[in-house]
Design a protein that fits this description.
Cyt_P450_sf, Cytochrome p450, 15 helices, about 425 residues, cholest-4-en-3-one 26-monooxygenase activity, three-stranded antiparallel beta sheet, single chain, Cytochrome P450, iron, five-stranded mixed beta sheet
């Protein structure tokens, strides 16, 4: 079982390649294709998306330097004009309702509402609670021979963590996780069996309806959770509309449900494939923060974000026209040979910088400190409890262009069990 590489190393004719087509994503990110793009055509034109014929073509950016250039120039590359992700099943109205889908100055005003709750100091105060949630879920696995690391450990832990931040009843964690998984994995047959159109017709309306119940409850009886902050916050003297609150809720709960889960499971897969690296962490848990950064480099939770050019320009020698879509592929930039030595080698001592949380600029991830803390605690407690975990079957990747994650990961908790 390979950590990253595709078994097919034959070169592809890049001229007709559509990077976002499902054929390239059935076994995770298309690392061989990304390597070829970085080396031969780091700014590449795809004529569209075969699965979504109405979608326009787009430019793929696959090296760190150019992704950094796009990320930091919001005046030239807008998050708001054409949507911040290439997910046709999430309407532009929904994308633009989240602050991540806005341009300044509105982006900054809304993001500032959340920042005080996500500073490293504030997040560190939650370590004991996050550890207790993780340990409680691991306790439920005691006595079992096998489990699915996605559904039996990672998903319940991350759902409860973000649920506790948002004021979600624990009994509703699984419901919200399913809705958010269907939303972000709308093009994956397992995450969203009803198909992308059902996200528009059923999932998003259901999220809005159920979120409205929470809004009404916090408006009447405020608490100290983030939902109460959203409901009672003021921006330029005005409270947020219910729609803005719902969009803020979706952004936080989606990120909380999918980001840590994705990187943790892929990281555990790499540790099972590289027993020597796993043993380093067991022998010296102080290396786990470095391992977290290596996992973030190699296994970023989200495959891309998108921008729209506001005027004619040039990127990496390619002419970008006003209105063109530009996709920044983070599973590609994490393996940039100009940045990393031997980038396909999983090395828990590397402690790299990376672009898993974005490449700088105003849209740098708000939840960075929380994600790092969750990952560290989950690796610490899982390796301590089940240091000899083994594969019990073949993991399955989501065939999806936004979420970079395993949907199933069967493991044997102890050898010989």
């Amino acid at each position: 079982m390979s950590t990253t590489s595709s078994t097919n190393t034959a070169k592809t004719d890049l001229e007709g390649v559509r990077v976002a087509d499902p054929e390239h994503w059935r076994e995770g990110p298309p690392h061989e294709l990304f390597k070829q793009l970085r080396n031969e055509c780091p700014v590449h034109w795809s004529g569209g998306m075969t699965s979504f014929p109405e979608e326009p073509g787009f430019w793929s950016v696959t090296n760190q330097e150019l992704v950094h250039e796009v990320s930091r120039n919001y005046q030239l590359y807008s998050s708001e004009l054409g949507g911040m992700v290439g997910m046709p099943w999430v309407q532009l109205e929904v994308q633009n309702g989240m602050f991540i889908g806005m341009d300044p100055p509105k982006h900054g005003r809304l993001k500032s509402l959340f920042q005080r709750g996500f500073t490293p100091k504030r997040i560190a105060e939650h370590e004991a609670a996050i550890r207790a949630i993780t340990v409680a879920q691991l306790d439920k696995l005691e006595g079992r021979e096998t489990c699915d690391l996605v559904s039996d450990l990672a998903q319940p832990v991350v759902s409860r963590v973000i649920g506790s931040f948002m004021g979600i009843d624990e009994a509703d964690d699984a419901m919200w996780a399913e809705l958010m998984n269907r939303l972000v994995g709308g093009d994956d047959a397992e995450m969203n069996p009803e198909g992308p159109q059902d996200v528009i017709e059923t999932v998003i309306p259901m999220i809005v309806q159920r979120c409205q119940v929470l809004i009404d409850a916090r408006r009447e009886n405020p608490t100290d959770d983030l939902m109460s902050i959203l409901v009672h916050a003021e921006v330029d003297g005005d409270t947020l509309s219910d729609w803005e609150i719902v969009m803020g809720f979706i952004l936080l709960v989606t990120a909380g449900n999918d980001s840590t889960k994705a990187t943790f499971c892929s990281g555990m897969k790499a540790l099972l494939e590289n027993s020597g690296e796993r043993q380093k962490l067991i022998d010296d848990p102080e290396l786990i923060p470095s391992a977290v950064e290596e996992c973030l480099r190699m296994f970023p939770a989200f495959a891309h974000f998108r921008r729209t050019a506001t005027e004619d320009t040039e990127l990496g020698g390619c002419p970008i026209k006003k209105g063109d879509k530009v996709m920044m592929w983070y599973p590609a930039t994490g393996y940039d040979e100009d940045v990393y030595e031997d980038p396909y080698r999983f090395d828990v001592t590397r402690n790299p910088e990376h672009q898993a949380f974005g490449a700088g600029g105003r849209h740098f991830c708000l939840g960075t400190a929380l994600a790092r803390l969750e990952l560290r605690v989950m690796f610490e407690e899982t390796l301590k409890r089940f240091p000899h975990m083994e594969f019990a079957g073949e993991p399955r990747y989501a065939t999806a262009i936004f979420v970079n994650q395993l949907t199933t990961f069967p493991v044997r908790l102890s050898p010989g069990a």
